[in-house]
Amino acid sequence: MSKDSILVINCGSSSLKFAVINPGTEEEKINGIAERLGSSEAVLRWKINGEKGSQTLGLAAHEAALEGLMGLLREEGLIEGISAIGHRVVHGGENFSESCLVTDEVLEAIEDCIKLAPLHNPANLTGIRAAQKIFPGLPNAVVFDTAFHQSMPAEAYLYPIPYSLYKEQGVRRYGFHGTSYRYVGQAAADMLGLDINNSNILVAHLGNGASACAIKNGKSIDTTMGLTPLEGLVMGTRSGDVDPNLFSFLNKTLGYSLDETTDMLNKKSGLLGLSEMDSDCRVIEDAAVEGNEHAQLTLDVFCHVLAEKLAGFAAAMGKIDALVFTGGIGENSSIIRKNVIERLSIFGFELNEKLNDETFRGKSGVITQEGSTVGMVVATNEELMISRDTQALTA
Ligand code: ADP
C-alpha cells in the first residue's frame, strides 16, 4: 500500500479532532472527533464514506483517544497509508513564521508560547506528545495559526503602549486563523486567475471565532485578532474591540475582578451578550427575519464593525482584487454578506442577490455583479492545508 495520506490532529483541552487526508488528491478518507476527554464519558465519533460511527472510550484522555483512533484506523485499513502526522498549534509567537517538523527545540519553543495561549498550547503539546508515543514510527509536523501573520509590518503589529512591553514581554498583535487565510487566499487567487504574488485580497473568516485579514501579494499585512483571539471583530461569545478602561470601570461600579471581566468578554459577550438570545448567528438571523428589532441591531453591530475593519484594510492595501467570505457564517449567511457588502459600496461592490442566496454549504464562488469589485465565498479547509504542509515537510 502506498503511503499517500497524512493524519491531521487538532487537539483542544477536552477534545481531539482528526482527519486522514491525501493531500495530492485532496480526498478526506475519514474525519472525526474524540470528545469529553478527561471525563469518564469520553467518546470517539467519526465519518467514513459518508457513514457515521462511534465508540465509547470510558475514562480516557488524549493518549487513550489516540490509541482508540489507531485501532479504528487499523480496522478501516487506513493505518498503513499514513506517512506523517500534522498538528494544528494555536500560538507560535515570534518563533515560527512557517510550519516545521517537530524536534525537541520546536517543542520547547511551543512551550515558551504557553504564556501567550494558556488554554490552547498546552492541549496542542499534549496531542503532539501522545502522537509521538502512540505512532512512534511517524514524523510529526506543526502548523501554527499565528505563523502566516509574521509577515505583518511593525506598524500593523505594534500596540501604542510602552515599547518595553513588546521587547520584554512580547506584547504585540499576533493574529490567528492563519492556516485558513493561507488556504482561502490561494484558492481565491486560483479561482479568479490571479497571480497570488501580485494580488490584494481581503478575507473575512467568520465562525464562532471571527477575524479579518489583508493579504497583499500572498502575505498578511494586517489582521484584526491581536495578542489573543479576543481582539477585533464581534464573535459568537467574544466581544472583540472594547475600551480597555472597561476593566477598571466594571471593577469600580460593580466590583468585577480581572477574571470576571475577562470571562465576560470571552464567554458572555459578542452575538450572545448583545442579542441576549444565542451565540449562533442562525438563531439571531431567524429572529431578525421575524421582525425582532433587537436581533437586527445585533447583526448590524456585527456588520458595522466588520465593514469598518475591512475598509481600513482596503486603505492599507491600496486596491481590492477580491473580498472573500469564509468560516461557518461567511460560507452560509447570505444575510451577513449582503449587509457587509452594502456597507462597502464606496469600494465598488455591487451584490448579485441570486448568486449570494445560492452560495452556502461548502459552495465557493463569486457573489457580486459583473463589473463590480469582486466579492466571493471560499469554503475554507484548514485540515487540507495542514496535510499539504506536513507532506511538503516530510516528502
Ligand atoms: P468555529 O469558529 O467554531 O470553527 P464555524 O466556522 O464552524 O465555527 O462557524 C460556526 C458558526 O457558523 C455557527 O455558530 C453559526 O453561527 C454559523 N452558521 C452556520 N451555518 C449558518 C447559516 N446557515 N447562517 C448563518 N450562520 C451560520
Mean pLDDT: 97
Give the strand tally: 14
The protein's oligomeric status is: single chain
- Rg computed from alpha carbons, rounded to a whole number of angstroms: 21 Å
Small molecules held by this entry: adenosine-5'-diphosphate
**Helicity range:** 25-40%
Enumerate the strands of the largest sheet in spatial order, edge to edge or round the barrel: 5-4-3-2-1-6-8-7
Class of secondary structure makeup: alpha/beta
Largest beta-sheet characterization: 8 strands, mixed
Structure annotation, total helices: 15
The coarse overall form would be: globular
Span between termini: 17 Å
CATH architecture of the largest domain: 2-Layer Sandwich
CATH topology of the largest domain: Nucleotidyltransferase, domain 5
What does this structure look like?
- With 395 residues, the chain is an alpha/beta fold.
- It folds into two domains: 5-144, Nucleotidyltransferase, domain 5, CATH 3.30.420.40; 194-382, Nucleotidyltransferase, domain 5, CATH 3.30.420.40.
- The chain has 15 helices and 14 strands.
- The chain has helices spanning 62-75, 104-112, 121-134, 154-157, 163-169, 178-192, 246-254, 258-267, 270-275, 281-289, 293-317, 327-332, 334-343, 353-358, 382-394, and strands at 5-11, 16-22, 27-35, 42-48, 51-58, 82-89, 100-101, 140-144, 200-206, 210-216, 219-223, 322-326, 365-366, 375-377.
- The strands form two sheets. It has an eight-stranded mixed sheet with strand order 5-4-3-2-1-6-8-7, sandwiched between helices. A six-stranded mixed sheet has the order 11-10-9-12-14-13, sandwiched between helices.
- Helix 1 packs across helix 3 and helix 10 (281-289) packs across helix 11.
